[in-house]
Specification:
There is one protein chain. The chain has one domain: Flavin-binding protein dodecin (Dodecin subunit-like), CATH 3.30.1660.10. It has two helices and three strands. It is of the alpha+beta class and about 80 residues long. It has a three-stranded antiparallel sheet, covered by helices on one side.
């Protein structure tokens, strides 16, 4: 990951940070991932990637009612030079 960030910034050294988020959807896991990334990008700049840590479903009366995704989102800290 560090080498990839280094190459993607034109050779300059970058510092990245990871945060863990949880996102939900009534549609499916892919929708939960998309919503989580979109919401994170509204608050945090320079989102570069994510990996899925865990997935689960919530069930009511034998039916899946919600898809839950826990993911680690990586973003590059702003270079204030």
């Amino acid at each position: 990951m560090i080498a990839q960030l280094f190459l993607n910034t034109g050779g300059r050294m970058s510092v990245a940070k990871n945060i863990e988020i949880t996102s939900t959807s009534t549609v499916g896991f892919e929708d939960a991932i998309k919503k989580g990334i979109e919401r994170t990008a509204k608050t945090i700049d320079n989102v570069r990637g994510a990996w899925i840590k865990d997935q689960k479903v919530n069930v009511t009366d034998g039916n899946v009612t919600e898809y839950v995704v826990m993911m680690i989102v990586t973003f590059v800290l702003a270079d204030n030079e």
